[in-house]
Design a protein that fits this description.
- The chain is mainly alpha-helical.
- It has a domain at 279-442 and 460-504.
- The chain contains 23 helices and two strands.
- It has helices at 3-24, 29-48, 51-55, 79-105, 111-130, 134-152, 158-190, 209-220, 232-235, 241-250, 252-268, 270-276, 280-299, 303-324, 327-358, 369-372, 374-388, 395-408, 412-438, 455-459, 464-482, 484-491, 496-503; strands at residues 61-68, 71-76.
- It has a two-stranded antiparallel sheet.
- The longest helix has 33 residues, at 158-190.
- It is globular and about 70 Å long.
């Protein structure tokens, strides 16, 4: 299988899986979910077929059609896109496995629509990962927005519909008003929308236009959740937990920060930003978002809401790394796409397992649950350590590179921001684990079996399909620490220009 064929096939497979899910429908849930799992495995295997070529320095291309002069639907896999494709397709496997257990355990309705939209979202995410130019990226960025809207409003309640309006309103507003304008302006300035190593704007834009254009891309990519365009993310937590995992780890927010990082590297060019200082304001905005969201997370009693604000801050780590315009900063931002994805999906899986197994969503009601759900809580502990950035978890490497990136550029205040945010992460993540193991379990009425016994005494852990995925992804946090060199080696080529600038 050639890399080009694998690229096209991996884009089509989730769409074919979506059709298979719709055909089988509610008639046979087992067959429907079998189609889903087989599609996830084949898709990931196909994406892996592209990896050797990218690691060897090749950038496989696939040009589909010319829509209009200058607007070409085309794909190319470079190292950053390869990383995002591996994250999205790999985590789709465990998320689908988890979704089967969660949707059945929670007796959710409209499960066929759920799995079909999920597959469509993965196809869109891969389109973003492979995009050769800004036109292709924008097209699949919008497809991702609209394919995930039914997932956000899945419950069909007024609260879910309101969350959907916020979700769609902010993401469509920012992409049409800011991102689309930025793309059109880039085309006028550079004469092309194609991504290129070193950027396409050097010598073609200067002065005030450069930071303004960067602002259009940074705020136009609403999925990156920079403040003040972050409200869609906590609002969307009304959706089922597998959707939260999709939003926070597998596709949506990672599409946002991937877009920001790719635009910085391949449109602006790291050298241009380093020489002009045009991204200094973006570093300040990212730092504010990191600290403000972490402080808000400390106030949230609902576990998913706390994790949502944590995600907002963690995404800005990646934006900060891109805005530093240094070799280590860009590599750290790229690595954090994978590190945060695996760590945060573990935490959301745990939140859903607690909901299914113990019917609890507020942290203040989770005292003593750790002794009844030890596998779930141990997975939470490992995922938390990775998000905090402590070894031997993968998140420690991405944060180390971000710290080195800040030092490399002389941005010492942002080293302090990164360290303080890690302390704040301890403050909002560790109490869940501490309460689970070191506080006494509280007997509560309304959660029993009708015979005076609390259901948690008898059930313990959630069903296997809700417990196994977070255990697997927790293991992934450790593996990312061990195989740091392989991950860093994959994405190091995207920072070549920064390394050259520093060397000069």
């Amino acid at each position: 299988m050639t890399p080009e064929f694998a690229m096209g096939l991996s884009l089509l497979l989730p769409a074919m899986g979506m059709l298979g899910v719709l055909v089988v429908g509610e008639r046979s849930p087992n067959a429907r979910e079998g189609v889903t799992m087989v599609t996830t495995l084949i898709t990931f295997g196909t994406v892996l077929q592209i990896l050797p070529a990218v690691r060897s320095g090749a950038t496989p291309e696939l040009e589909v059609m010319t829509v209009l002069p200058g607007l070409v639907l085309a794909f190319e896999v470079e190292p950053l896109g390869m990383l995002y494709a591996l994250v999205a397709s790999g985590l789709w496997i465990v998320t689908s496995l988890y979704a089967i257990g969660y949707m059945r355990g929670h007796h959710e309705v409209n499960q066929t629509r759920f799995f079909a939209c999920f597959a469509a979202a993965i196809s869109a995410a891969l389109g973003i990962a492979y995009a050769r130019n800004l036109f292709t990226l924008f097209l699949f960025y919008e497809i991702l927005t609209f394919s995930t809207y039914p997932l956000v409003t899945h419950a069909g309640t007024e609260k879910a519909k309101r969350a959907g309006r916020i979700y769609l309103g902010i993401l469509v507003f920012t992409s049409v008003v800011f991102l689309l304008f930025g793309i059109a302006w880039t085309s006028q300035l550079a004469g092309t929308l194609e991504f290129a190593q070193g950027g396409i704007l050097a010598g073609k834009v200067s002065g005030w236009r450069l930071p303004v254009l960067l602002g259009l891309f940074a705020f136009g990519t609403g999925k990156a959740a920079l403040m003040p365009f972050h409200r869609w993310l906590p609002a969307a937590m009304v959706a089922p937990t597998p959707v939260s995992a999709l939003l926070h780890a597998v596709a949506v927010v990672k599409a946002g920060v991937f877009t920001v990082l790719k635009v910085v590297v391949y449109v602006f060019g790291i050298d241009l930003l380093a020489e002009t200082g045009a991204s200094e304001w973006l570093m300040a905005v990212a730092a504010f978002t990191i600290l403000a969201s972490s402080l808000v997370a400390l106030t949230k009693d609902n576990l998913k809401a706390r994790l949502a604000y944590s995600t907002i801050g963690q995404l800005s780590y990646i934006v900060l790394g891109a805005a530093m315009a240094t070799s280590a900063g860009v590599i750290g931002g790229g690595m954090h796409i994978a590190m945060h994805a695996v760590g945060k999906i573990t935490l959301f899986f745990v939140a859903g397992a607690i909901m299914v197994g113990a019917h609890k969503s507020e942290i203040s009601t989770m005292d003593g649950l750790g002794r009844r759900m030890p596998w779930t809580y141990c997975a939470y502990f490992i995922g938390s350590l990775s998000i905090i950035g402590l070894p031997p978890m993968g998140g420690s490497w991405s944060k180390w590179n971000l710290l080195m990136g800040a030092a490399e550029g002389g941005h010492y205040v942002y080293m302090v921001v990164l360290l303080v945010s890690s302390l704040l992460a301890i403050g909002y993540l560790m109490p869940v684990f501490v309460r689970g193991f070191f506080f006494e379990y509280k007997e509560e009425h309304g959660h029993g079996d009708g015979h005076g016994h609390d259901s948690q005494h008898e059930q313990g852990e959630a069903p296997l399909l809700c417990v196994l995925p977070p255990v697997l992804t927790a293991g992934g946090c450790v593996l990312l620490f061990i195989f740091r060199a392989e991950l860093e080696g994959l994405i190091a080529p995207i920072a070549k220009t920064a390394a050259a600038a520093v060397g000069g």
